[in-house]
Specification:
By secondary structure, chain A is of the alpha+beta class. Chain A has helices spanning 7-10, 19-30, 36-42, 58-61, 128-133, 163-167, 180-187, 212-217, 381-388; strands at residues 72-73, 78-80, 98-99, 114-118, 124-126, 137-144, 170-179, 195-200, 207-211, 220-225, 228-229, 239-241, 254-260, 275-276, 282-284, 292-297, 308-317, 323-329, 337-338, 340-341, 351-359, 364-372, 401-404, 410-412. Chain A has 9 helices and 24 strands. Chain A is globular, with a radius of gyration of 23 Å. Chain A starts with 6 loop residues before the first helix and ends with a strand. In chain B, helix 3 (70-80) crosses helix 6 (146-159) and helix 5 crosses helix 6. Chain B has 6 helices and 3 strands. Chain B has a domain at 64-183: Orthogonal Bundle (Cytochrome Bc1 Complex, Chain D, domain 2). Chain B has a two-stranded antiparallel ribbon. The chains are: A alpha+beta, B mainly alpha. Chains A and B meet through strand 4, strand 5, helix 7, helix 8 and strand 13 of A and helix 1, helix 2, helix 5 and strand 3 of B. Strand 15 of chain A pairs parallel with strand 3 (185-187) of chain B, so a sheet runs across the interface.
Chain lengths: 415, 194
C-alpha cells in the first residue's frame, strides 16, 4: 500500500494547495510519522472514486494530513493563531492563541472547584457538574492579548513579519458557560462590593481584579468552546470570559472569585499590563481592546503568483461593540474604499471583511482600517505614538500596511 | 476623520449603558425566581482560610503572621532567586528582561531610560509579598515559608533603597512602605487617539 514507494503519486501535489500546505505534507513524510491517519491520508489514491474511502471514525474526522495548520511558536510564553491560513470568524479551538504565565495547567475536572466568596451573603463552592446545572449562555467573542504586537510600538518590526507574528494573539470562539450575573445572584452580592478577584489554578495562581459592573453585564464563566469542553490552553475546565477585554483578565483555570470593596493591586494589574506614558503617568486597568483590523490575505510571507484578480480578506474587531465599517486602501493610504462585511457582524467578535482587487503588477501598499459602532476609527501607528509614546508594550492597534513588491512578495510595510 | 465621540454623545452612551444594566438586572431577577437555585455547597472554614493569604491587599488585609529583615532575606534571595534575577537583583537573568527581569533599580522609573522594577515601578509594597507567595520561585512555586517571603521582600525593598537593612517587615509594617511610583498610576482615559 505505501505511497512512500510510489514516487509518482507522492510527487503529485494536490491542486490549489498553498506553499505552506505543500511544505507541510512533505514534512509529514520526512518526519516518518506513523500515525494511522497520516499514513492513510498520504495514501490519497490517484482516483478516489475507484476505491473505498476511510471508515467512519477518528481518522476521517481529523484534518487532512495535506493541511498543516498549527499555532506558530511565539515567544516563550505564547503561540499565535495562524491568521493567514484560516477562514471565517471562528478560530478552530486548537488554533486559539495561547499565553500562559506558568505553563498551561492540566487540571483534573473531578478535583476542580470554583469558590465564590468575600462580600457575598451565601459563599458557595461549585464543582463542574454544579456549574453546568446553572442556566447556560452562549456567545461568540474574540479574545486578544493586550500585548498583541508588543514590538510594533518600538518599530522593531521586520519586513519578514507575518499576520501571525504581528497580530496572531487574537482569536474568536463560540463560548458556552454561565453568566457571572447568574452566579452572583446565587451568592447575593453585599452592598459595597465593587470588584472581584479572579484567581486561576495554574502555577502562577494568576489573578486580576475585575470591576463588578463588567461581571454583572456580559461576563461569563465559560466551560465550552466551539461545542466542546475548553482546550487545556484555554483554561479547562472553566475560565472567566470578559467580552472585549484584554485576554489576561479572562482568567483561565478559574478557581475563585472573591468579591471585595477595592481592587487587590496584584502583580498583573500593577507591575504588568499597565501602560507607561511619555509624561511619566502609568495607565492602569486599561481593559478594553480598541477597534483593530488586519488584512490576512494577502499578508506578510505570502506571495501573489501572478497579476490579476485577488480578493483582499481580513478580520476586524472591537472591544467596544460591533464593527460598523472596514475601509481598505490599495494605494498606500490615499483612497479608502469600503469593504464588504460578511455576516454575522457581532459585538466583540471577529468580523470578516472582503474587498475585490486587481493587481496590475506594480508595487503597492495594502492596508485596512476598522470603524466601530461608537465611531472610533482605528489609528495609524504614528497617531498612536504621538499620544502614547513608545513606552508601553500593550494595547497597540495601529493600521497594518503590507507591501506587495513587483515580484509578488508580500512584506511588512510598517517595518 | 471626524471624531464622533462628542462629550454629549459619550454622556448619552453612558446613560444608555447604565439603563441597559438596570434593565438587565431587573429582568434577570424576574426571570430568576424566588431566590437562589440552591446549587453547590457552602465552603468549609478550612477552605476559606486556605484562600485567606492569597487575598493580600494594599492596606495589608490578607497578610499572614510572619516576619523578616533584609539581612535574613539576602540568604533566601541568593539561594532561591539569584539564578534567574542575577546575583544581587540588579542584573536580571540571561533570558531577558521579560522572563527574568532585574528586581532592583534605585533610580526613578523612566521610559526607555531605566528598567521598571518592583522597586521603582510597582505602586504597592504588598504586591511584592503577594507575587512571591503565589508564583515564585518559578521552578518551585509555593515552597517558601511566610517568614522567608517576608525576608526576601525586605531584601528587595532594602536593595531598592526603600527600607533599612534591619527593618522588620511583617503584616503591620509592610503596607506602610510607600512606593515611589505610587502616584504615577492613573485610570484608563481612552479613547485618546486620534
Amino acid at each position: 500500500m505505501g505511497t512512500d514507494q510510489d514516487p509518482e503519486r507522492a510527487a503529485q501535489p494536490p491542486a490549489r494547495l498553498t506553499r505552506r500546505q505543500v511544505l507541510a505534507s512533505a514534512l509529514a513524510t520526512v518526519g516518518g510519522l506513523t500515525a494511522t491517519v497520516l499514513a492513510a491520508g498520504q495514501e490519497a489514491p490517484a482516483d478516489p472514486t475507484k476505491v473505498q474511502g476511510l471508515p467512519p471514525g477518528d481518522a476521517a474526522g481529523r484534518r487532512s494530513p495535506f493541511v498543516r495548520l498549527t499555532r506558530e511558536a511565539g515567544w516563550t510564553f505564547w503561540s499565535y493563531t495562524p491568521l493567514g491560513n484560516i477562514d471565517g470568524i471562528i478560530t478552530p479551538s486548537d488554533l486559539h492563541y495561547e499565553v500562559h504565565h506558568a505553563g498551561a495547567a492540566v487540571v483534573d475536572p473531578n478535583r476542580w472547584t470554583l469558590t465564590i466568596h468575600g462580600m457575598v451573603e451565601r459563599p458557595i463552592v461549585l464543582n463542574l457538574d454544579d456549574l453546568r446545572r446553572f442556566p447556560s449562555v452562549s456567545r461568540i467573542a474574540f479574545l486578544e492579548c493586550s500585548a498583541n504586537s508588543p514590538f510594533s510600538w518600538r518599530s522593531s518590526a521586520s519586513p519578514q513579519d507575518t499576520a501571525e507574528n504581528l497580530v496572531g494573539l487574537t482569536s474568536c470562539s463560540l463560548w458556552t458557560g454561565v453568566a457571572v450575573s447568574t452566579l452572583l445572584r446565587e451568592v447575593g452580592v453585599k452592598a459595597g462590593a465593587k470588584w472581584a478577584l479572579a484567581e486561576g489554578s495554574d502555577a502562577a495562581l494568576m489573578t486580576r481584579s475585575i470591576p463588578i459592573e463588567k461581571l454583572m453585564s456580559d461576563a461569563m464563566v465559560a466551560y465550552g468552546q466551539n461545542g466542546e469542553p475548553l482546550r487545556i490552553a484555554q483554561g479547562f475546565p472553566a475560565r472567566l470570559l470578559l467580552p472585549g477585554w484584554e485576554g489576561n483578565a479572562n482568567v483561565k483555570w478559574l478557581r475563585r472569585l472573591e468579591l471585595a470593596d477595592a481592587p487587590f493591586m496584584h502583580k498583573e494589574e500593577t507591575g504588568s499590563y499597565t501602560d507607561p506614558m511619555p509624561d511619566g503617568k502609568v495607565r492602569q486597568f486599561t481593559f478594553v481592546m480598541e477597534a483593530r483590523s488586519i488584512i490576512t490575505s494577502p499578508s506578510g510571507g505570502q506571495a501573489l503568483p501572478d497579476r490579476g484578480f485577488y480578493e483582499i480578506r481580513g478580520l476586524a474587531w472591537s472591544g467596544r461593540g460591533r464593527i460598523r465599517r472596514v475601509e481598505v486602501s490599495t494605494d498606500g493610504g490615499g483612497a479608502w474604499l469600503p469593504a464588504t462585511l460578511d455576516e454575522p457582524v457581532l459585538p466583540m467578535a471577529h468580523t470578516r471583511f472582503r474587498f475585490p482587487w486587481k493587481w496590475n503588477g506594480s508595487e503597492v501598499v495594502l492596508e485596512s482600517r476598522a470603524i466601530d459602532e461608537t465611531g472610533y476609527v482605528q489609528p495609524t501607528r504614528a497617531q498612536l505614538v504621538k499620544v502614547r509614546g513608545t513606552g508601553s508594550i500593550y494595547h497597540y492597534n495601529g493600521i497594518q500596511c503590507w507591501r506587495v513588491t513587483r515580484d509578488g512578495k508580500v512584506t511588512n510595510a510598517n517595518a | 476623520m471626524a471624531k464622533s465621540r462628542t462629550p454629549m454623545r459619550e454622556l448619552t452612551r453612558q446613560i444608555a449603558l447604565v439603563a441597559g444594566a438596570i434593565l438587565f438586572a431587573v429582568s434577570s431577577t424576574q426571570a430568576g425566581d424566588q431566590g437562589p437555585l440552591g446549587i453547590g455547597r457552602p465552603p468549609t472554614p478550612q477552605e476559606l482560610s486556605r484562600f485567606a493569604a492569597f487575598s493580600v491587599r494594599p492596606d495589608g488585609r490578607g497578610l499572614p503572621a510572619g516576619r523578616g529583615t533584609a539581612v535574613e532575606g539576602k540568604a533566601v534571595y541568593v539561594a532561591k532567586c539569584a539564578s534567574c534575577h542575577g546575583p544581587t537583583g540588579k542584573e536580571g537573568g540571561k533570558t531577558g528582561n521579560r522572563m527574568t527581569p532585574p528586581l532592583v533599580d534605585t533610580r526613578p522609573f523612566k521610559v526607555g531610560v531605566t528598567n521598571a522594577t518592583v522597586g521603582n515601578y510597582w505602586p504597592y509594597s504588598t504586591t511584592i509579598w503577594d507575587f512571591i507567595h503565589r508564583a515564585m520561585p518559578f521552578n518551585h512555586p509555593g515552597t517558601l515559608s511566610n517568614d522567608e517571603i517576608y525576608a526576601v521582600t525586605a531584601y528587595l525593598l532594602h536593595a531598592n533603597g526603600l527600607i533599612g537593612e534591619r527593618d522588620v517587615v511583617d503584616a503591620h509594617s509592610l503596607p506602610k512602605v510607600r512606593m515611589p511610583n505610587r502616584d504615577a498610576f492613573v485610570p484608563d482615559p481612552r479613547p485618546d487617539v486620534p
